[in-house]
Amino acid sequence: MLAIVAPGQGSQTPGFLSPWLEEPDTRRRLEVLSEAAELDLVAHGTTSDAATITDTAVAQPLIVGAGLAILPTLLDGAAVTDHVGATTGHSVGEVTAAAIAGVLTPEQAVVFVRERGRGMAQASAAAPTGMSAVLGGDPDDVATALERHGLTAANINGGGQVVAAGTLEQLESLAQDPPARARVVALAVAGAFHTHHMAPAVDLLAAHVADLTPGEPALPLLSNADGRAVPRGTEVLRRLVAQVSGPVRWDLVMQQLADLGVTGLIEIPPAGTLVGLARRGLRGVETLALKTPDDLEAARRMIAEHGTP
Questions:
Q1: What is the mean pLDDT of the segment spanning 84-105?
Q2: For the chain, what is the radius of gyration of the CA atoms?
Q3: Of 162, 186, 210, the domain-final residue
Q4: Which of 171, 182, 206, 217 is the residue whose CA sits 20 to 30 A from 86?
Q5: Which of 34, 91, 124, 132 is catalytic?
Q6: What is the 3-state secondary structure (H, E, C) of the chain?
Q7: Is the pLDDT confidence value at 285 over 90?
Q8: Range of 201's domain?
Q9: Is 194 labeled as catalytic in the residue annotation?
Q10: 220 pLDDT tier (thresholds 50, 70, 90)
Q11: Catalytic pick from 44, 83, 90, 194?
Q12: Whether residue 163 sits in one domain with residue 73
């Protein structure tokens, strides 16, 4: 079985879309999504600098738009259900996955993340907050340390990686007093995502989705909340809204991918982060980070070998 996974915020790098936009159809799709998002995603994916694309309000539509513009190129015109057995995404990548599964159209997805990004940027501006990766250490020791410093485990990624979120003062205290045998690495993000600090963005998104009519998932769409496949489009929307202030349980997502019998996993652009986690958490599963068009030949071989007929 083949899974397509979509990365979250922080995966983008300056110019990552440049090689993809040499293909006219990909450029055209991204231009359509740029209009929907009210952002020049072509420019942000090719010429914008790191500071610009780190801005939450830019990063989220860029990441989602890039994945959805490139997916048809990967599938070479085939329907997703012809080959893909499951889909999921990390944090904002879960919105990409919802569009892959047919719950949202690509245009609805980039508008949703435009509002998500704006709401989260506004919430982040209310107080100086951030996130740090805690690498290694005993899980109980890590949990105790986060509680001691008043931090939230915003992402539990598996493979000995937990992302702590809270105020910058709390994160500095953690860096000075880390768990035993663990390393703390500050992340280049604009706020304490997936915590109570994002409550204002939840309210904004709840109002936005009240006018949306979602489709039903055409294939298993695994939720960040608990790793389970969500069978109804309305429940997918509810979870996408709640996810903004709730933790990402990527460890449970990977466990569910294993339980489903996934044998191949392709991460769509901007790719690399989730494949790194899968190599530690999904032993025996073939993985590919689709970074440039040079990776398409290997990706299509994987589709032929792992894809469902």
A1: 97
A2: 18
A3: 186
A4: 206
A5: 91
A6: CEEEEECCCCCCCCCCCCCHHHCHHHHHHHHHHHHHHCCCHHHHHHCCCHHHHHCHHHHHHHHHHHHHHHHHHHHCCCCHHHHCCEEEECCCHHHHHHHHCCCCCHHHHHHHHHHHHHHHHHHHHCCCEEEEEEEECCHHHHHHHHHHCCCEEEEEEECCEEEEEEEHHHHHHHHHCCCCCEEEEECCCCCCCCCHHHHHHHHHHHHHHCCCCCCCCCCCEECCCCCCECCCHHHHHHHHHHHCCCCECHHHHHHHHHHHCCCEEEECCCCCHHHHHHHHHCCCCEEEECCCHHHHHHHHHHHHHHCCC
A7: yes
A8: 2-124+195-306
A9: yes
A10: very high
A11: 194
A12: no
Alpha carbon 88 to its chain centroid, in Å, reads: 8
Q: What is the CATH number of the domain that holds 165?
A: 3.30.70.250
* Whether 120 and 131 share a structural domain: no
pTM: 0.93
| Mean pLDDT confidence for 153-177 | 94
Structure tokens at 303: 């589709």
